Amino acid sequence: MTIDSMPGTGAPDDPPASYEDRVLGCLLGTLAGDAFGVLTEDGAGTAGVPEEPTASSISAATHLTLSTVDGIVEALEWANDGVAADETACLWLAYLRWSVRQGAQLPPEAPAPPARWLDRQEGLPPGLRAAAASLPALATGAMGSRARPLNPSAEGPGALMRSAPFGLVPRIPGGMVERLTVEAAALTHGSSAAQDAAARFSGIIRRLVVEGAAFDDGLADAATRGAAFDHPTAAGGGGPESVGAPRPTASATLDAAVHAVRAGATASRSPQEQRAAVLAAAVEAPVRGSSPVVAASLAGGIIGALHGTAALPPSYLTAPGVPAVVRAMGRTLLSATTGA
Predict the structure, then answer these.
(1) Which of 56, 208, 256, 281 could form a cystine bridge with 295, CB 3.0-4.6 A?
(2) C-alpha span between 196 and 127 (Å, rounded)
(3) How remote is the C-alpha of 187 from its chain's centroid?
(4) SS percent in the chain: helix, strand, coil, step 5
């Protein structure tokens, strides 16, 4: 039984998307959801995903997701050359390059990694929205870890929103996907709750994209993965994402995205109709304590992981600008992982 023949995930006669198409669909779906969430938050209504996102219509979710792709690709490039690489260090350098792109001034003791292809793309605008904890952590120039956490109280969705690419890598054990996700999250978010949510999300994406699981099966399998991971530290209070009125948490934001997909994905709708309904659900009925913008980007990524590029506006497959950068990074990831 394929993904699209399962109740609540797609039209019964739709052919299943290929692995390669699901990878591209997940990354472009993240972009589409991000753009939709930002425009809605800015008061542009919920008319639909823009045909081509502009510089003002994406948050840090898209750029940091691509930075995760770039860090994974760099580690794979070293491995393919026969050189052992520290995957987490490669990811940290990718996030540092992102922070410099945002105008951060790193301390002298911080590494100064040379720019890679992604960092030179003018079509990908800088963006800080939804990065409340990530930028300050990176600006310290210190490499956070589970044992030596930065921002131990940061429970927001900044690490969660960049974690989908870990679930796109084939031919590695699920436990390794979880470990990489948690270690990458700990670079900026020391809270075990934020790390757990990131691991749950990458587990969902892996089940859908790599294993071709049905949506509900992917959720059931991933539900316990993050919670079961052994963390040496626990969240405290007073961090940059836990002060004052209720702020978005990673756990609530992931719950909002999953709820939106369940509410909007029905067998009577085409993939594009599902995408529209899911994104509307993510921003119109947000879960308390969630970030609607990030929830929309996660929901878009999940729908793309389910249906591939069939769930996207056709222009996302040809448009210049941000969509072109996303497509190029998707192809680069596929080349590094499968040679495709």
Answers:
(1) 256
(2) 25
(3) 15
(4) 55, 0, 45
In terms of phi and psi (left: phi > 0; alpha: psi -120 to 50; beta: otherwise), the region of 45 is left
The reported pTM is 0.88
Question: In whole angstroms, what is the distance from residue 198 CA to residue 68 CA?
Answer: 13
CATH 1.10.3660.10 fits 15-46+61-239+249-338, yes or no: no
d(CA 94, CA 171): 23
Give the span between the Cα atoms of 142 and 107, in whole angstroms. 9
Measured at the alpha carbon of residue 111, what is the angle toward residues 146 and 185, in degrees to the nearest 5?
25
Side chain identity, residue 199? A
Q: 18-30 pLDDT, tens per residue?
A: 999 999 999 999 9
Distance in angstroms (rounded) separating the CA atoms of residues 214 and 219: 9
Show me where the domains of the chain are located.
15-46+61-239+249-338
- HSE-CB at 260 with a 13 A cutoff on CA atoms is 36
Structure tokens at 201: 């999300």
Q: How far apart are CA 203 and CA 226, in angstroms?
A: 8
Report helix angle 174-185 to 87-101, nearest 10.
40
| pLDDT tens sequence across 247-268 | 899 999 999 999 998 888 776 6
